[in-house]
Amino acid sequence: MASYGSHSLASVSRKALQKYNFPDVRYLFEHPIEKPKWKTMIDKAINQYGHQKWSE
After folding, report:
1. Averaged pLDDT, 40-47
2. Alpha carbons within 13 A on the beta-carbon side of 25
3. Whose CB has fewer CB within 10 Å in the chain, the N or C terminal residue?
4. Does residue 1 form part of some domain?
C-alpha cells in the first residue's frame, strides 16, 4: 500500500475519504454502495464539510 504522504491514486483516495468521514477503501470494496446512494452521501458530506469550514 502507498505511504500516507505519497501522491498515488490510493493515497489521494484514502485522504479524500478521511476528509469527508467516509469508510475506508477496503470497506467500500467489500460492501459496494449503489450509485444513487453514493451520490447522495457525497453531496451531504461535501455540504457538511463546507458548512463546517464556513463556521470556523
Report:
1. 92
2. 10
3. C
4. no
